[in-house]
Design brief:
alpha+beta; six-stranded mixed sheet; Cytochrome Bc1 Complex, Chain A, domain 1; globular
Length: 509
Amino acid sequence: MKFPSAVRLLVVLWCASLAVFAQNLTSFEKRVTTKVLPNGLTIIICQRHDAPVFSYFTIVDAGSANDPGGESGLAHMFEHLAFKGTKDIGTTNYAAEKVALDKVEQAYAAYDAESLKRVGRDPAKLKQLHAAFQQAVSEAQKYVIPNQFTEIAEENGAVGLNAETSLDATQYYWSMPSNRLQLWAYMESDRIANPVPREFYKERDVVMEERRMRVDSSPIGRMVEQFLAAAYMAHPYRRPGVGWSSELEHITATEAEAFHKKYYVPSDIVIAVVGDVDPAEAMPVLEKYFGAIPAGPQPEPMTTIEPPQTAEKSVIIKEPTQPFYIEGYHKPDYRDPDDAVYDAIGDILSNGRTSRLYRSLVRDQQIAVEAEGFSGFPGVKYPGLFAFFAVPAPGHTPQEMQAAIHKEIDKLKTTDVTDDELAMFKTRARADILRGLADNQGLAEQLAIYQLRYGDWRELFNQLRKIDAVTKADIHRVANKIFVPTNRTYAMVEFQPPQQTQQTKGGAR
């Protein structure tokens, strides 16, 4: 078979990139030091002496999918608490504060118990208990030094302080001058070992407002929440990471401490440090601080497995707002041998203005302003969804998006992708991986994630071989296996004039 010149060029570039990538792995192996401490925590150090700074990435193998039953939103709440300080940071007198915080919990437990009564609730008593709770909060607040944890970090040159909670994991990160490594190690190990749930109920109000903005006041947010609740019958992926309102407004600091004790154990934590760091000097410092965190029992693995879907499911919301369409198909988790094939499908359908969905729905038919397909929604640790979404252009409907997307899916199932499409996917995939390693923060993130998920950061470099192995036949096979109506859940926001909205409410069916 004779390839077009553009494809031949791509093949040459691809072969060259394989050699370069192999060299990069050899280079990284010389610069990366990995150690599992006696308590089970894993530390990775990668030397990059380009500038006198370092970045770190801490990943905890617990996310919103691990929220206990009836306590949705707890993992996300604890991420917020991690910036409230420790026994040493954020307080004027921890011993006295601890007594005050215990009184807050006692007062809230009494108030909450009365508020949850379905029969015999006493409004006067409830008011009295709430006042007592508020008084206890005020007493505890006297010992708080607001934002001290963040201020100490920033005063010592920290930038990009942030944290994220996904359904799969929780991560913390920032960058800092390399001569502040010991300070960082003290602060990060202290908040892992000794977090204090101060200002818990104030922060819970912040999270509840976040939910109101992201979900309750957003038609698309409500649609996505109902979409996942319909797609998943049993698995925790059906629950929103921010939590259900009725559960979020009742979670307590006591429950947050229990979550921390169970899931923030060293054996479930990987920390990567990348930058101007000498492992011979740094590792003893990190061992001193992170090795002092008490070990704990490994949390039991998730036992819930989503049953196979046997019928198409749908959610329709009618609102006087921008129409929207999304659909998803159940797929295996990140360990599946075909994981790179799903990446290929997502790239060919959605990567840039030459992708199939953009060309068809946006450029040629002009029925959508945006259209994409992507893998790993809402997570990758457990079996997730391959999802498609489209935003209709003015005058067009979600039903048109559905038909147009199905037409593109049928092409994948019946006709091989082109040589150009497959080659471009592989070139872009390599570029994306290398781009993610270009800066200290990105590299720290990738090293930590791959070490946690595969037990070896080198798997990051093995991804290229898996990508290179993807064939046209693989794409054809996977598309026919996964993209079938009985495995599909779809949701849409349909435009409905305001006067009709009050009379008709959408829902799952």
